[in-house]
Amino acid sequence: YNDAINTKKLALTLIGFPYISTVCIVDNASVDDSRKVLETIDHPDIHLVWNQHNGGYGAGNNTGIRYLKEQENPKYILIANPDVIVEESLIDHLLQELEGDESLAAVTGQPINLEQEARQLAGWNLTNIVDYLLTINAVLSKFWCRKIRVKGKYCDCLSGSLLMVKAEIML
Fold it and tell me: CA-CA distance, 99 to 66, in Å (whole number)?
């Protein structure tokens, strides 16, 4: 949404990675010149999907997931914010984790800033039903959810800025 320059840059980066065969860009009804910029992408494996209204981050992700499942039938789907910087080694690592543990539904990496410092929690556990209920409410979760750092371990929730999921469990 309203970030065509970063979106285009990320899409062109990802499509160059050996494990990425298709990129689906969902524009969530941007109100700037995003459509014009995105339509300049000339790559047969980068697909553009236009939402008629902005239903939020989750709705945009669901549109892309549905499109990919219908058109490409992928085993895994990478969901990413347009402003992330992704290295090929991360994609390789995420794939290895999903392939190596059948019980996993999704994996992520630790977000870092340009100074190589951890930026936010990558995953956390919900300690009780109250935490769960507060987490599913977008406004309340910002104030009440107790997030627990979980490095290299199972957890209940992942950050949505970049994650790889098993396509079969989505939607």
Answer: 22
- Render pLDDT for 6-65 as a digit per residue (tens, 0 to 9): 999 999 999 999 999 999 999 999 999 999 999 999 999 999 999 999 999 999 999 999
Whole-number Å distance between alpha carbons of 13 and 26: 16
| Kind plus residue range of the DSSP H or E element containing 23 | strand 23-27
Q: What's the pTM?
A: 0.83
Q: Write the pLDDT tens digit of every residue in 113-146.
A: 777 776 666 777 777 777 666 656 554 444 444 4
Helix, strand or coil, per DSSP, at residue 35: helix
Single-letter residue type at 130:
V
> In this structure, are strands 157-158 and 123-124 parallel, antiparallel, or unpaired?
antiparallel
Burial class (CB in 10 A: 0-12, 13-18, 19+), 125: middle
